[in-house]
Amino acid sequence: MIERRKTRQIHVGDVAIGGGAPIAVQSMTNTDTADVEATVSQILRLEKAGCEIIRVAVPDMDAAGAVRAIRDRISIPLIADIHFDSRLAVAAVENGAQAIRINPGNLGGPEMLARVVAAVKLHNAPIRVGVNSGSIEKDLLAEFGYPTPERPDALIESALRNVRLLEQQGFEDMKISIKSSDTLTTISGYRRLSEEIDYPLHIGVTEAGGLIAGTVKSSVALGILLFDGIGDTFRISLTRDPEEEVRVGYELLRSLRIRQRGPEMISCPTCGRTKIDLFPLAEEVERYLQTMQSTIKVAVMGCVVNGPGEAREADIGIAGGVGVGIIFKKGEIWKKLPEDQLLPVFLEELKKMEREQR
After folding, report:
1. What is the pTM of this model?
2. End position of a domain, from candidates 235, 255, 275
3. Is the predicted pLDDT of residue 146 greater than 90, yes or no?
4. Which domain holds residue 333?
């Protein structure tokens, strides 16, 4: 149903991007990169959540120097995020960054950019050309105005200008992002840009907000773009623990039937028939499912009357009653249990199903 836009393929470490490769889920650490222990600890948690590429901020030489120690202890590719300072870009690559995110036009001129290009060529590291609404060149803003859904020209022209700077240096191993905090501007901008270039695109809504607002804004913009076949990597940007970004990302891919990782959980919104405290029950089940790899469908329902029927497609489900509950499989009751035994028995059965699918 979804026809992916054809793009060139690049590699960040061992992860292929574009050219028909699976859409990669990225995130970014929020630790002090120079604090190796804290940064590695967060990245390892993100790996378990399914993060496939990680980006770290490199604001100074201490952070650039820490890249090597971090890389030696993680499994996923690492991108160094650089602003303005070409020396940091070179140092990060020399210390093992497998890609860098830069805005080529703000590194200090052609000579500085040439040094960066020489370093990434030597170390086979691609570049993500990153343009945001808040960092567009003044002359482009004067000509086109601030990016809007009706006229995202300044974003697009800024990206194309920076792409040309790299192409003039004989460098084409890149992916492009043009982020806005506005959902509709993000959609229209990427749609337009995808018609102009065949480089792989990293999509996202910048400064999207907290868990609720950020999830909604990102899901709307990225869902529409992905349905259009646009996007080769993405990040759900949330003012939240980055593990939440990864979980939302995979749920987005699952909802579009693009990729699936781990179990799918369905649950009822509750109503007057609910006779069990369903919210904490659902939270406990969801927390456990995040540790699983099998692609089963799990239901958490509020009543034993309608639960099995409404969630008949679930591989396994749980439904509460008055002091009792049931565990059902494919719509058929498997066990009826006292309420205090319901969750422990259910989790044990999930563990068994996980072992059987390995």
Report:
1. 0.88
2. 255
3. yes
4. 264-357
Residue 5 lies in a domain: no
CA distance 29 to 299: 32
Residue 209 domain-assigned? yes
3-state secondary structure of 278: helix
Query: Residues of the chain with pLDDT > 90: what percent?
Result: 63
Residues 201 and 268 in one domain: no
Let me know whether 249 and 213 are in one domain.
yes
Q: Where are the alpha helices (DSSP H) in 50-168?
A: 61-71, 86-94, 110-122, 138-144, 153-168
Q: Which two tokens stand for residue 249?
A: 């990302």
Beta strands at 99-102 and 78-81: parallel, antiparallel or unpaired = parallel
Joined together, the tokens standing for residue 242 give 């980055």
Contact (Cβ atoms closer than 8 angstroms) between residue 77 and residue 57: no
What are the tens digits of pLDDT across the range 53-74? 999 999 999 999 999 999 999 9
Number of domains in the chain: 2
Examine residue 222 and state whether it is found in any structural domain, yes or no.
yes
Note the pLDDT of residue 197: 95
Query: How many residues are given for the chain?
Result: 358
> What pLDDT does 275 receive?
66
117 and 91 within one domain: yes
User: What is the Cα–Cα distance from 230 to 26, expressed in whole angstroms?
Assistant: 16
Query: What tokens appear for 49 in the block?
Result: 């959540």
Domain endpoint, select from 255, 279, 302 = 255
pLDDT at 202 over 70: yes
